[in-house]
Design brief:
This protein is α/β, with parallel strands linked by helices and about 625 residues long. The chain has 4 domains: about 60 residues, no CATH class; about 160 residues, Alpha-D-Glucose-1,6-Bisphosphate, subunit A, domain 3 (Alpha-D-Glucose-1,6-Bisphosphate, Chain A, domain 3, 3-Layer(aba) Sandwich); about 230 residues, Alpha-D-Glucose-1,6-Bisphosphate, Chain A, domain 3, CATH 3.40.120; about 130 residues, Alpha-D-phosphohexomutase, C-terminal domain (TATA-Binding Protein, 2-Layer Sandwich), CATH 3.30.310. About 40% of the residues lie in helices and about 20% in strands. The strands form 4 sheets. Strands 1, 2, 3, 4, 5, 6 and 7 form a 7-stranded mixed beta sheet that branches. The chain starts with 8 loop residues before the first helix and ends in a 12-residue tail after the last strand.
Length: about 625
């Protein structure tokens, strides 16, 4: 058995537990002998010693770490750091890089007739990110790919920018974004006709096939070279210059050509969440004349241990506690938070009467405001050019449909894509894109991935413009409800014993789809597994209701959960009346959804087992103006 054998050890263990344990140990020993890293080699050796001593937990970990390979997909790789082919380590990164290089060389022969492909490689400040980046550079260079390595840890948007700016064939970013501290990852972009977007099928499968082929041989046989270039400071300056120019072009100007709100005071608290966004964000804010920010001191410097947060994701409960504390100390008007690789953005505003004194806008709320800003920016450009407004606003299928109302109002195109910016960034004539999980693409002509830095500058400018009128972003959300109708969004998550149970429960709903929820008839049911219903088949069920509400059901691809996204709408009466009506419908639908899932679970043979429970995500309205 090689370290790349895909056979599940658990199947054989039932009949030959001793023999299977010996095979698992042999696999781990072979891996340890070939490992490039003394730390993970020692981990494997210690694990083997524990297994030999009869430690059952160690045997389970050995089977998990060495029984299969960390799957490569459209998100590249992401997983815990550790020994074994199912973990992130130097062996897996080297093999992955060799496979990706083989793919790029073959692609280059087709696209350019044989010119050497090129790649830019970036990395964040997580544990081993720089080591993995240098392994990637050496393997790529050894395979004959022209390599440009970024000189220091930096944000994911900078790497995405570099692919387009430098005109490379591809890009790799070593990051696990907002995952737990023990994780790392390998994110892949394609240049040329793909324009710097993340990979999509069939490229992921083709790359994976190359990886599997090259991983079958010794990692020591993969050629390496130190003949690669290190990017200079001009790349960082180019990102700042191009991003700042795009931002400034969208700021409303007074007659003298100065931004209308340039003199407005605004107290801002900023947290980098122990990540790599702070330095570049400060440069962009300064270059665009935005107000200075007060940093959360404990979280401003990069630290892969993330010592002040259990989970470095601005969406997670408690992640913004230090930002709230700092904001209260300085009476901040605005909180700006990036995740560790600065591709996501959270905004929080004063909210009197709440426990923290501040509330984070939902991803849907901020997506609506930034999308509206993008539409207004295009309207101004179109009028100046004496042409019709053109372009498309886009969001993922599980994000609020409020953006569609903005597009219709401004005569723009509107697109809903599968989840992930690999799809959003590929929408033709894209003006703006977002996903409810705090991802925003405000300037797709510069970066073809979510960019928390440019989005945060737009959000600060938007808040400053409101402040110049004695208003806040809460007031702007009320304006949106008055103009487009009020959209409320909620999420119900059902925890299950296994991912298989979540898939099975989804299948039961698919086979017996509800005809109504909370007494509201289902007008249309759309199954995204149906060929042609989406860019690629997806295990998502969509229910469009007679009153304009929408329910989306999908099993999580990474956790044993079934997720339900609910969106409601009202355009009757005043803004408070619209909000109350939409949120009342939302509450009724959440109750109905839970009952529907409970009924499906109780069917004989449902396989969901005991221990399932529901949890609800933030159900704040997508354009609600209440500060509570």
């Amino acid at each position: 058995m090689t370290p790349h054998d895909q056979t599940s050890p658990d199947a054989a263990a039932a009949s030959e537990p001793v023999h299977e344990t010996d095979r698992a140990i042999a696999t781990a020993l072979a891996w340890a002998e070939a490992d490039l890293d003394p730390e993970t080699r020692a981990q494997a050796q210690n694990l083997i010693a524990l297994v030999r001593s009869g430690n059952a937990e160690a045997l389970t970990e050995l089977r998990t770490a060495f029984g299969a390979r960390l799957a490569f997909g459209t998100a590249g790789l992401r997983g815990p750091i550790g020994a074994g082919p199912a973990r992130m380590n130097r062996v897996v990164v080297s093999q992955t890089s060799a496979g990706f290089a083989a793919y790029l060389l073959g692609r280059s022969r087709v696209l350019t007739g044989g010119n050497a492909p090129s790649i830019v490689i970036g990395y964040d400040a997580r544990v081993n990110s720089e080591i993995f980046a240098r392994d990637t550079a050496e393997i790529m260079a050894g395979a004959g790919v022209r390599v440009i390595l970024l000189p220091e840890a930096g944000p994911t948007p900078l790497t995405a920018f570099a692919v387009r700016h430098l005109g490379t064939s591809a890009g790799v970013m070593i990051t696990a974004s907002h995952n737990p501290p023990q994780d790392n990852g390998y994110k892949v972009y394609l240049g040329d006709a793909d324009g710097g977007s993340q990979i999509v099928p069939p490229a992921d499968g083709e790359i994976a096939a190359h990886i599997d082929r090259l991983a079958a041989g010794p990692v020591a046989d993969l050629p390496r070279s130190s003949q690669y270039a290190i990017a200079g400071p001009e790349l960082l300056s180019a990102y700042v210059a191009e991003t700042s120019a795009a931002l400034l072009a969208g700021f409303p100007l007074a007659a003298d050509g100065v931004a209308t709100a340039a003199g407005s005071s605004l107290t801002i608290v900023y947290t980098a969440m122990h990540g790599v966004g702070s330095a570049l964000a400060h440069r962009v804010f300064s270059s665009t004349g935005l107000p200075p920010v007060t940093v959360v001191p404990e979280q401003d410097a990069p630290d892969g241990a993330f010592p002040t947060v259990a989970f470095p994701n601005p969406e997670e409960p408690g992640a913004l506690d230090l930002a709230f504390r700092t904001a209260r100390e300085v009476s901040a008007d605005l909180i700006v938070a990036h995740d560790p690789d600065a591709d996501r953005l959270a905004i929080a505003l004063p909210a009197p009467g709440t426990a923290d004194g501040y509330r984070r806008l939902t991803g849907n709320e901020l997506g609506l405001l930034l999308g509206w800003r993008a539409a207004e920016r295009e309207r101004v450009r179109a009028e100046a050019g004496e042409r019709p407004a053109a372009g498309t606003l886009a969001c993922t299928i599980v994000s609020s449909p409020a953006l569609g109302a903005v597009a219709r109002e401004y005569g723009l195109g509107y697109a809903e894509t599968l989840s992930g910016f690999k799809w959003v960034s590929r929408v033709p004539q894209l003006l703006f894109g977002f996903e409810e999980a705090l991802g925003y693409l405000t300037h797709p002509e510069i970066v073809r991935d979510k960019d928390g830095i440019s989005a945060s500058a737009d959000a600060i400018a938007m808040a400053r413009e409101c402040a110049a009128e004695g208003r806040t972003l809460w007031d702007l959300l009320d304006d949106a409800s008055a103009r487009f109708g009020h959209f409320a969004s909620g999420q119900v998550t059902l925890r299950l014993p296994s991912m298989a149970a979540a898939t099975m429960l989804s299948e039961r709903v698919r086979n017996a789809p509800p005809t109504s929820f909370a007494g509201i008839a289902v007008d249309r049911t759309l199954d995204l597994l149906t060929p042609g219903a989406a860019e690629v088949p997806a295990n998502v069920l969509r229910f469009d209701l007679a009153d304009g509400s929408r329910i989306m059901i999908r099993p999580s691809g990474t956790e044993p959960k079934l997720k339900v996204y609910i969106d409601t709408f009202s355009d009757a009466g005043t803004v408070p009346e619209r909000r109350a009506a939409a949120e009342q419908t939302l509450a009724s639908l959440e109750t109905a959804v839970r009952q529907t899932l409970l009924d499906a679970q109780s069917e004989p043979g449902s396989g969901s087992g005991s221990g399932a429970g529901t949890e609800s995500a933030d159900a704040s309205g997508a354009s609600g103006g209440a500060a509570s």
